Amino acid sequence: xxPYTGFTTIQFGPIPIYVWGLLVAxxxxxxxxxxxxxxxxxxxxxxxxxxLALLAVxxxxxxxxxxxxxxxxxxYYREHILEIFALWKGGLSSFGGFIGxxxxxxxxxxxxxxEAWEYFNVLxxxxxLAWGIGRIGCFLIHDHPxxxxxxxxxxxxxxxxxxxxxxxGLYESIQGFxxxxxxxxxxxxxxxxxGKRYVAWLFVLYAIPRFFFDFLRISEGPLADARYFAxxxxxxxxxxxxxxxxxxxxRVRAYHGEVA
Length: 260
Known about the structure:
Layout: E1 9-12, E2 15-18, H1 19-41, H2 46-71, H3 74-79, H4 94-111, H5 113-141, E3 145-148, E4 155-156, E5 164-167, H6 168-189, H7 195-213, H8 233-256
Antiparallel strand pairs: 1-2, 3-5, 4-5
């Protein structure tokens, strides 16, 4: 099993640097730099990539907070309105973030239909790398604990309630890196270059494992996710995203007259 660290902050003199925020920022910077590099090779404007990525991230954080407030702990925030703005206390929904980012991307698509998918292609290609790095922060602070396990990638339980627990932050980080490796292999060995293909495969390869990951989450205590009819909000989001991914794959297949 993996030893428990509880590594939440780095003290830089009198200033505490939060590990989660640092890794998320690193993920964004690395992902954007790689996306700009790919954009240049494809003769796309790297400044558009940077601006679109920044807009998506800002909208994503807003959506992530709104999603957490309304779908994960609404009774509490209804009684403590000002706590909605206390972002330093945590509380972000990944699928709320995806919805926020999607709204900005759809708005941008309406303005730049002709070239939009080329840029979406680049962002979809590099997103798993950025996500994998950012989720390392979740793993280091252990804010997504799972049920007890004897799995060799289980995280040691510091409270002694069991030997180890699943750590969903770790598994999503690994998932992100694996998707990025798959995309690298597709780019190297596949002759098909349609931009929708990477977007579609990103939807499918992220959403389906995420749906099953959430069955491993704890169901009680302050870090437990809300559940509606035995499923978490993220699982319902996973279903929608997976269906959208399959639909896009079918569109790509129909466009090319072959398997996507």
